[in-house]
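S.,

Sequence below, as promised.
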Amino acid sequence: MISIIAPMKNEAQNVEGLVREIAESCASLAPFEVILVDDGSDDGTGEVIATLQTEFPWLRQLRHPQSAGQSAAVHSGTRAARGDIICTLDGDGQNPPHEISNLVAPFLQAERSASLGLVAGQRVDRDDTWSRRFASQMANGLRGWLLNDGTRDTGCGLKAFRRDAFLALPYFNHMHRYLPALFKRDGWEIAHVDVTHRAREAGNSKYSNLGRALVGLYDLFGVAWLIRRRKTQSPTEIGGAG
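The prediction came back faster than expected:
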């Protein structure tokens, strides 16, 4: 089974459209489940999800009483997931659900590598403001130089990964921005898929360029420290049972 997870923070205007697109785009992937994580919304997002659950039996809802952030929402959803493969996308509708099948495809191939841990989406023709695109380009350039994670766009919410591998990663706030580096740190192979992107139709972004930059620098050096501190040696048994 595939578990599709979308964090939601005050996305009441976007929930129904997203769920219906997933239903249409992912029919060929059945059985699947969708877990929408209501991250402390106060605009009725949870009520909209509950109404949709009467129509779509595969739709589940988790709720954080207070907003804990996107990484916490992805982590909560993954822990609750029933599927072995997790696919994430943003709850604002900017990640087209039709890309989900492209992300999970490498995991469904009979000849897939047993070491494949993550398939990361990378946005092309990004439909965002110039300032957001510029800030993202600068952040990705610095991150790629420092972490050498081989990914040009870690800010894309479209990702697919092994549930067990994700839950073995060190958990911290904002970790969702560093999944390629963290998976690589643990020895997993990473694949990349170009994905489309579209403008937000309703609601407001929860991030500012300045806020991302300040938090991002702090986290970036923390992840670099985690990578350097990774112990790669495996214990060797000496002797035997006689």
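Helices lie at 15-25, 45-53, 70-80, 100-108, 130-147, 163-167, 179-185, 209-228.

Coffee later?
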